Amino acid sequence: MKVKDLGFFGKYVNVKADDPVSEAAKKMVDHRALDVMVVDDDNRVVGIVTYRKILEEVVAKGLDPSKVKSKEAVSTNFETISAEDDVKEAIIKYTRFQMEVGSDIPGLIVLADGKFVGVIPIADMYAAVSPQALYQYAMMK
Question: Which residue has the higher pLDDT, 6 or 137?
């Protein structure tokens, strides 16, 4: 089964790279999101703004969130996957990345032709492979 066959990547909140961090924070609050994807004008992933990044890159430095661009406060600590890749390979890729680096999001950023199309949570990947695998994953938490 391919990643694209899962059919639903979730509505993921995003902002443009030049949008102020204050806009990213507002969207996070409005959508109850822990993070916001930052994309360029061609919908290519620049990074991800997380609560932690806002604190580290803006608040702790005493900067004005309405003047700092989102692209200046992004994390690039995540892994991507093509919509054409196999779900089992996606699980392996995510697990390997998590063990070696540690991801800022619990899933993979899905790209089609290099452009952002969504995020596939690790739980959805496990569920697609086997309900037993999803159960085992849930028990690890």
Answer: 6
Tell me the two tokens of residue 65: 């969130």
3-state class (DSSP) for residue 131: helix
Domains belonging to the chain, first-starting first, are 3-140 (3.10.580.10)
pLDDT of 134: 55
Contact 74, 49 (CB under 8 A): yes
- Residue with tokens 């540690």, as numbered in its chain: 102
Detail the DSSP E strand segments found in the chain.
14-16, 35-39, 45-50, 80-82, 107-112, 115-121
What whole-number distance in Å separates Cα of residue 109 and Cα of residue 105?
A: 9
